[in-house]
Design a protein that fits this description.
The complex is a heterodimer of chains A (472) and B (313).
Chain A (H helix, E strand, L loop, with lengths): L19 H9 L2 H22 L14 E8 L1 H25 L4 H4 L5 H5 L21 E10 L2 E8 L6 H14 L1 H5 L9 H11 L11 E4 L8 H11 L2 E3 L4 E4 L2 E6 L2 E4 L2 E4 L3 H4 L15 H6 L4 E3 L5 H4 L1 H4 L2 H9 L6 E2 L3 E2 L3 H9 L4 E5 L8 E3 L5 H13 L4 E5 L5 E5 L4 E9 L1 E4 L4 E3 L4 E5 L13 E8 L3
Parallel strand pairs in A: 1-21, 3-11, 4-5, 4-9, 9-10
Antiparallel strand pairs in A: 2-3, 2-18, 6-7, 7-8, 12-15, 13-14, 13-15, 16-17, 17-20, 18-19, 20-21
Helix pairs in contact in A: 3-14
Chain B lengths: L2 H32 L2 H4 L4 H8 L3 H7 L5 H10 L7 H14 L6 H14 L9 H25 L4 H25 L15 H11 L3 H8 L5 H9 L8 H19 L4 H15 L2 H7 L1 H24 L1
Helix pairs in contact in B: 1-3, 1-6, 1-8, 1-9, 1-10, 6-7, 7-8, 9-13, 9-16, 13-14, 14-16
Protein name (chain B): Alpha-E domain-containing protein
Pfam family, one (chain B): Alpha-E
InterPro entries (chain B): ATP-dep_Glu-Cys_Ligase-2, DUF403
Chain lengths: 472, 313
Amino acid sequence: MADCFDEMKGTDGTIRPAYAGLDAWLRDLSPDLIDQRCQEAELLFRRIGITFAVYGEADSTERLIPFDVIPRILSSSEWALLQRGLTQRVKAINMYLKDIYGRREILKAGIIPVDLVFQNQVFRPEMNAQKVPHDVYVHIAGIDIVRVGPDTFYVLEDNARTPSGVSYMLENREIMMRLFPDLFSRYRVAPVENYPDELLATLKSVAPDTAAADPNVVLLTPGIYNSAYFEHSFLADKLGIELVEGRDLLVKGGVVYMRTTEGPKRVDVIYRRVDDDFLDPLAFRPDSTLGVPGLMSAYQAGQVTLANAVGTGIADDKAIYSYMPEIVKFYLAEEPILRNVPTWRCREPKDLAYVLEHLDELVVKEVHGSGGYGMLIGPTADKGKIAAFRTRIEADPKNYIAQPTLALSTCPTWVERGVAPRHIDLRPFVLTGKDTVRIVPGGLTRVALQRGSLVVNSSQGGGTKDTWVLDT
Amino acid sequence: MLSRTADNLYWVARYVERADYLARILEVTLRLTALPLAYVGSTNEWESAVATAGCSRSFHAAYPEADEDNVKDFLAFSSANPSSICNCIELARTNARAVRTALTSEMWDVINGAWLELKRFNNAPGSREEFLRFLRFVQETSLRFDGSAYRTMLRTDAYWFFRLGCNIERADNTARILDTKYHLLLPEDTHVGGPLDYYQWAAILRSVSALTSYHWVYRESLKPWLIADLLILNQKMPRSLASCYDNLVRYCDDIAEAYGRQGAAQRKARGIRTRLSNLKMDEIFQSGLHEFITEFISDNNELGGTISRQYLM
């Protein structure tokens, strides 16, 4: 992919303005110094990682997510565009959820096929006609964005359930400021360290009416064996709230309490990092030991706020994703500022024909799959695999969507004693409270460390970078 | 504070204290067994180590007879023994990890560092020298952990629950030593032992790190009834039952004051302390040392249960 857009050098090799300082700095630095800094970064992470105990068993202590010391830089005008687009998109998502669990205008207007919603496992009938405080369903959203050109950003995926990764945004910045104070003096980088304050303000703003003036907010984790436990404990610490497990909570008289050494204490807002399915064994999976019996009934009675709300999966499902541009237009009567990746829906005969014709160039995904499972990457698949996938699509076209293979932008990355371009994406975090949408300028940049690879997932050799938004 | 958090803190402290105790028992046993038989008699010191550790039953379910190899393995490394040193450290870390943010980073560093270091010792060390290094390492871990708690924790309920765990476990450990060795500590006229016991007496004192203290307190050669006095009633001796109960009463009261409420745990702790401070050593001997210790162990367990019911669940 020689012709893809590079964050530093564009498509023609000229250094883009936001990267001029970084370019000069990189030229001055000896490779040895960078190597040394990389090692320091690794040590710091190991210390912090270990300090916060991410890594459970025996040898997984070695499983650090690689950190790249070269930052990804966004100019203030690029960020302004993203910020407008993200705000618009998350606003529309919240309006859509209110509608889906309320009057269902969008279904009546025939914009989204009814079966895509009602036959979807992530649709929660329990939420029908349910009021949530200030009509906010998605309090914390992580929107995955890729870039294919100077002005072209696509939304790859919306994460409206329990998005993770924000602790890396915060930690990466801490490490960079410790390792490269000089580089920060060449730039005016917008800070991200206020994220925990913004998050707490967001959560407090959506407390139920019945809550005390200073509502009690807690973070609900599945527990120490969850892979994101590090993030849960990190955030609870930064927010100064209790990190609770299901067994720490109880429901009595329709009110949620936590068990404390001084007796039960009322809980008003739960920032939950437990999936819908496991929240309440009485309402959802009866075998769940992570949840709180009766939580759903307290929630339905408006005695406690869950963030994010139950049933938000119906907004970030892959089957719904392709309708996002229509969703934005329907609720806001505006053109979407951030575009979707062009998507063919195999449920539609015309699209299906095109997809079957072009299997060797497309990425085909199962609508309910995640984490790269049930996927065909046409350009790298052999004939046998394509043929097998063709049979599966023909058998159940509704279950598939297809997208072109994208030329993700690249960013200079430190690899084995040299700087080389590697593909990246971006996950900014959007907070929605009572009256405002808050977006901390930055996000999590993931980078595919293998040459030519487009897979940024940490489980498959991806790393992270600090993300800088320039303050004019 | 969350009951589970308090519970975790209480148990972190107990497990670290227990690991330390086991390490001291093993060290003392190694010392005794290094002496020629003429000095210590023909008792099986490894059997006695298992008894002092309080796990005779589970040990004998696995081995017919106690010897150096199987006792070292069982008390220090075995994953089958829930109270082996390795399991204690593992459990301490698991509890610490669950309340990571309630511990100071210094405390976490110690317990997590020890847990990582333990992997190095994982294949039970062969030589006595290596094994001794391991035991020292465990004791140093406990010292550093205790020290970091003392120096870095805020004096809030988190600290008090942590200290309660520490002192309940410590009292239990001291009482268990007395329970196993009480026959060596009976007063002169009823005593059946001979000069052989001198090394056993020294060993008892070593296992509570009090050999030097003994000399400072009594300025006498080792007398078994004085050893019993030091371990049971002497308030200046940090591992004595009396001293543990001074601490337990104090921390229970700190909690009660902060929460504005006294309860069963406070009453129970005070009751036991009052009894200890009113007793004289000869009264204990008169009514039976063994009976006294057995009753104490059960009282101490009861206090643990009362604290749990009142605060930790």
